[in-house]
Amino acid sequence: MPKVGIVAPYWSDITMDELVEYAQLAEELGYDSIWVPEMWGRDAFSLIGHLAANTSKIKLATGIISVFSRTPGVIAQTAATLDEISGGRIMLGLGTSGPIVIENWHGIKYEKPLQRTKEYVEIIKSALNFERVNYEGEIFKLKNFKLQFKPIRSDIPILIAAIGPKNTYLAGEVADGWIPFLIPIQGLGDAGQHLSEGAKSAGRDISEINICPYIASAISSDEKSSKKALQEHISYYIGTMGTYYYNSVSRHGFENEANQILKAWKNKDRVKALVSVSDRMLDSLSIWGTAEKGRALLKNYRAQGVDTPILLFPPKASRQVVRETIESLAPGS
After folding, report:
1. Number of independent structural domains in the chain
2. Which domain holds residue 136?
3. Integer Cα distance of 246 and 251 in angstroms
4. What is the mean pLDDT of each run of 10 residues along the chain (333 residues)?
5. Does some domain include residue 164?
6. What is the DSSP string of 168-180?
């Protein structure tokens, strides 16, 4: 059966019972994994512990936690502990976030994000291997510590969220998986070249790396409302979240739309920003429309070499739309 994952809904008013309900629904329908995001609301590790206690088969992933938010030792300890609690179901999604969040929320200077990510992966893997960690990096210098318990798995998958050429190369070099977001489907192959080059530099093959993009998804019989939720979501990231996403979509054929979106946000014209996300752009960046159309779009991702598509629900998608999307795009549907 083809693998599909979901991102746990992250409405500010979601209850713990609702969170468990969606996870259990995904597990029942054969989804491979549920990915728990972390921004400046509920923390991912606590929620994963709650889901581990209320599910039995579905994989549980951080999706994602920032390498600036905790030390590599704390991340290794926590991942190993949750892997033990869940019976070996943890995956570790790591990313750098951006300077606004890191400096204004965490109070840490946003410096050398790629080097920091590389050192995190190397240190965490060493700790999970139950080795005494002696590490001499550019950022971290660790000496003579070893986990006090042996992890039940030394090979907990570590995946890197990346959209730019350099951090995608790094994912190929050191990670077990790559999590792209808002890379147009027709650009995944080009972006994957950097992944492949990174893998080759480390003597690896790209087939060893799990390619699992986050794909904004909303399936509904009320196509108008689901389309609007996706347009708002995509325009927000392109217009307000720094240059990362603007550059990504511009590189892959949507420079005109990206410029219109950016201009509209600068002019505080949210309606114009929303409608600047064309249907062609939606087809390239998201899964939307009817169940039949959504399944066809999902199939296109597999044709581009995607191993595990991860369905991400726009924050303004209703409970009904999220449930309909999960049910309509379930593996084997």
Report:
1. 1
2. 5-221+289-328
3. 9
4. 94 96 98 97 97 98 97 98 98 94 95 98 98 97 97 98 94 97 91 95 95 96 87 94 87 93 94 94 94 94 94 94 97 85
5. yes
6. HHHHHHH-SEEE-
